[in-house]
């Protein structure tokens, strides 16, 4: 079973940057799309970005377009989320997740689409 571990979260001032990493162990997510989600206190878990298994397609939530970049290194079994120009409203726990379907060219935004989840990493953006 694939285990995912997120890292790279922390406290940053508004306008700053962070790079989150999602590393897979006990298996691989080659062949699977990977998504980044976030959940703020009292709110639902929403998708932030996703990337297809071959990195040919990406998806971004409107709120992060132009500021966040998702990428993957299949050789390292790692997916990244580069977050620039951070805003206080980006404060949340960030989770990575692996799609339940292999080699799918269309990215899904619903959390129910994803099979394996990491434990999350906290991002706090101060104003």
Describe this protein with a few key phrases:
127 residues; mainly beta; seven-stranded mixed β-sheet; four-stranded antiparallel β-sheet; 11 strands; 0% helix
Task: Report what the structure shows.
This protein is 0% helix and 53% strand. The chain contains no helices and eleven strands. The strands form two sheets. Strands 2, 4, 5, 6, 9, 10 and 11 form a seven-stranded mixed sheet that branches. 33% of the residues are buried. The model has no long low-confidence stretch (mean pLDDT 95).
Q: What's a concise summary of this model?
A:
With 127 residues, the protein is an all-beta fold. 0% of the residues lie in helices and 53% in strands. The chain has strands at 3-7, 10-13, 18-25, 32-39, 46-51, 58-60, 68-73, 78-83, 92-102, 114-117, 121-126.
Radius of gyration from the alpha-carbon trace, in angstroms: 13 Å
β-sheet strand percentage: over 45%
Helix content: under 10%
Distance between the termini: 40 Å
H/I helix tally? 0
By DSSP, the count of extended strands is 11
Structural class: mainly beta
The helix-strand sequence is: EEEEEEEEEEE
Q: Mean pLDDT, nearest integer?
A: 95
| Envelope shape | globular
Mind summarizing the main beta sheet? 7 strands, mixed
Spans where pLDDT lies below 50 across 5 or more residues: none
């Amino acid at each position: 079973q694939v285990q995912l571990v997120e890292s790279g979260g922390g406290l940053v001032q508004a306008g700053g940057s962070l790079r989150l990493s999602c590393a897979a162990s006990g298996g691989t997510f080659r062949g699977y799309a990977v998504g980044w989600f976030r959940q703020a206190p009292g709110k639902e878990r929403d998708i932030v970005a996703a990337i297809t298994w071959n990195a040919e397609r990406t998806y971004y939530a409107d709120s992060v377009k132009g500021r966040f970049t998702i990428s993957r290194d299949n050789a390292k079994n790692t997916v990244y989320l580069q977050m620039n120009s951070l805003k206080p409203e980006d404060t949340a726990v960030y989770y990575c997740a692996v799609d339940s379907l292999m080699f799918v060219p269309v990215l899904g935004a619903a959390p129910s689409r994803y099979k394996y989840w990491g434990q999350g990493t906290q991002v706090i953006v101060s104003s």
